[in-house]
Specification:
The protein has 285 residues and is an alpha+beta fold. It folds into 3 domains: 92 residues; 71 residues, Thrombin, subunit H (Beta Barrel), CATH 2.40.10.10; 99 residues, Trypsin-like serine proteases (Thrombin, subunit H), CATH 2.40.10.10. The protein contains 3 helices and 13 strands; from the N terminus they run H-H-E-E-E-E-E-E-E-E-E-E-E-E-E-H. The strands form 2 sheets. The chain has a 7-stranded antiparallel beta sheet with strand order 5-4-1-2-3-7-6, with helices on one face. It has a 6-stranded antiparallel β-barrel with strand order 8-9-10-13-12-11. The N terminus is likely disordered.
Length: 285
């Protein structure tokens, strides 16, 4: 009987140990499972946080880009409106007085030791364009500005076919912009500025009589105008109501009146840049 009770007591202890061991194992497994779940949850949260941060950064970048585009657009619109208002004001004006005041500072008298003509500044650094024939036979050249300063110039190069010469004077200046000569309309008003017969900075008004006329070089690249051109006007600008250059005054037919011709601005621009590329290895306008 005693032996039976002892065996029974031992059996109960072993059973309890198994139950305790099982409960401990379950607890550990549950703890591990919970830790794994927490880890994956943490990883998921980190991934979602990274994605959210990336989206926020992308949104900020896009917003800044849109704001920049909007600012550029508003600036462009403002400039366009100012230009249109200026052009409208000019087109409705009864004369060129406002434009002349702005243009004259960029026009110069070109003088050599044998002749004189006109030129105009095309770049703030003092690059001047005139007719090549104005410089023919001369050994020195000077530019006389609207405020009567005489500045020695240097010849950069010339285009014999189109009768264009590029000069340079030292200093910083106002300059004239070239307009697109493809937009010239027959009948539109223009002014020619030059030094006819030595009368500095004289202005004559006229209209565009025709475009794409043939010149002495047999090229159909000249504007015909009835604005008075006389000796000394050569190399001066032909200017539209926007205050931009549409041609460089080149020649007139004999002693005829109202038959002046100017090289169209698109060909003038091409000639200037070709000279600049050849000599200076750069494009000016």
């Amino acid at each position: 009987m005693l032996i039976y009770l002892l065996k029974k007591k031992m059996t109960l202890k072993r059973h309890h140990k198994i139950m305790i061991g099982s409960l401990s194992s379950l607890f550990i497994i549950a703890l591990i499972a919970n830790s794994v779940c927490l880890y994956f949850l943490f990883v998921k949260v980190n991934v979602e946080y990274s994605e959210l941060s990336s989206k926020i950064t992308e949104l900020q970048t896009n917003t800044q880009s849109k704001m920049s585009e909007l600012t550029d657009s508003l600036t462009t619109t403002k400039e366009s409106l100012e230009t249109q208002l200026s052009e409208l004001k000019s087109s409705t004006s009864s004369d060129f007085s406002g434009i002349i005041e702005d243009v004259i500072p960029a026009v110069v008298t070109i003088k050599t030791d044998v002749a004189q003509g006109t030129g105009f500044i095309i770049d703030s650094e003092g690059y001047i364009v005139t007719n090549a024939h104005v410089l023919s036979g001369g050994h020195q050249v000077w530019a006389i500005t609207s405020d009567q300063r005489t500045i020695e110039g240097s010849l950069i190069g010339y285009d014999e076919t189109l009768d264009v010469a590029l000069l340079k004077i030292s200093g910083t200046y106002d300059y004239l912009s070239l307009d697109d000569s493809n937009n010239i309309q027959v009948g539109e008003k223009v002014i020619a500025i030059g030094n006819p017969l030595g009368l500095q900075f004289s202005v004559s008004e006229g209209i565009v009589s025709a475009v794409h006329r043939a010149g002495v070089n047999n090229l159909d690249i000249y504007i015909q105008t009835d604005a008075a051109l006389n000796p000394g006007n050569s190399g001066g600008p032909l200017i539209n109501k926007k205050g931009k250059v549409i041609g460089i005054n080149n020649f007139k037919v004999g002693s005829s009146e109202s038959l002046g011709f100017a090289l169209e601005s698109n060909y003038l621009k091409e000639s200037i840049n070709q000279i600049a590329q050849t000599v200076l290895n750069q494009t000016l306008i």
